[in-house]
Write a structure and sequence with these properties.
elongated, 3 strands, 77 residues, alpha+beta, GMP Synthetase, Chain A, domain 3
Length: 77
């Protein structure tokens, strides 16, 4: 996920970004990836954080290559 890049472009400097990923495989293919994201970012609102996290999810080049469902569960600490 390109969240770090998106945050920096929006002038936010995260103190922490922790992501756990759970991949679902069927018939040798990645069907979905669930990303559980916990972030500590000074000065960002919940609304802005969710907006930027969604933007990063939707525009990640790696996710596009995998061609699977990406489920994002973002939260601020």
């Amino acid at each position: 996920m390109k969240l770090s890049f998106v945050l920096n472009e929006a002038d936010y400097n995260p103190e922490e970004l922790n992501t756990d990923a759970v991949l679902t495989f069927e018939d040798g293919k990645v069907i979905s990836i669930e990303l559980n994201l916990k972030a500590k970012i000074p000065g960002i609102s919940e609304e802005k954080f969710l907006e930027l996290a969604e933007d990063a999810k939707n525009n990640c080049p790696i996710s596009g290559v995998l061609n699977c469902e990406i489920i994002l569960n973002p939260s601020l600490n």
